[in-house]
């Protein structure tokens, strides 16, 4: 397991104890993991973002800290956000795979649904001789349609 994965799991374990937020000291965390503080910054910047369901804030200096807050959204709100703002007209393969994993992690979709979605938008599924830009547009349309279908199924089950 890579160091960034270990740091991510450590922080998420602290948040899993029904805590909505955690406050950490960057230098203490870096010392604990025997790494540079920039490694901690990297993990925060790439894995604790609003897209991942987190807000981070920090204060630098002697008594500096990093505050990570888990943002709770209903699965319907999150799906709407993805459809309106996050996916857009084009979506690269790596971002699509990350979004599918996040949806399962946040329990917006089941693991089986996330795996199906990831397979449908994977480079293997779109391995046709067209420019990458065209594949990215197709990938966004496919993912949006799958999310719309899931939203419609939920509304039918609730209504």
Beta fraction: 5-15%
List unreliable stretches of 5+ residues.
none
How many angstroms separate the termini?
44 Å
- Quick one: how many beta strands? 3
Taking all residues together, what is the mean pLDDT?
84
Helix content: 55-70%
Q: Major sheet, described briefly?
A: 3 strands, antiparallel
Lateral arrangement of strands in the main beta sheet: 1-3-2
Walk me through what this model shows.
The structure is a single chain. By secondary structure, the chain is mainly alpha-helical. Helix content is 58%, strand content 10%. The chain has 7 helices and 3 strands, in the order H-E-H-H-E-E-H-H-H-H. It has helices at 3-15, 26-32, 37-47, 75-86, 93-105, 111-120, 132-158; strands at 21-24, 54-59, 65-70. A 3-stranded antiparallel beta sheet has the order 1-3-2. Strand 2 (54-59) and strand 3 (65-70) form a beta hairpin. The longest helix has 27 residues, at 132-158. The protein is globular. The termini are far apart. The mean pLDDT is 84.
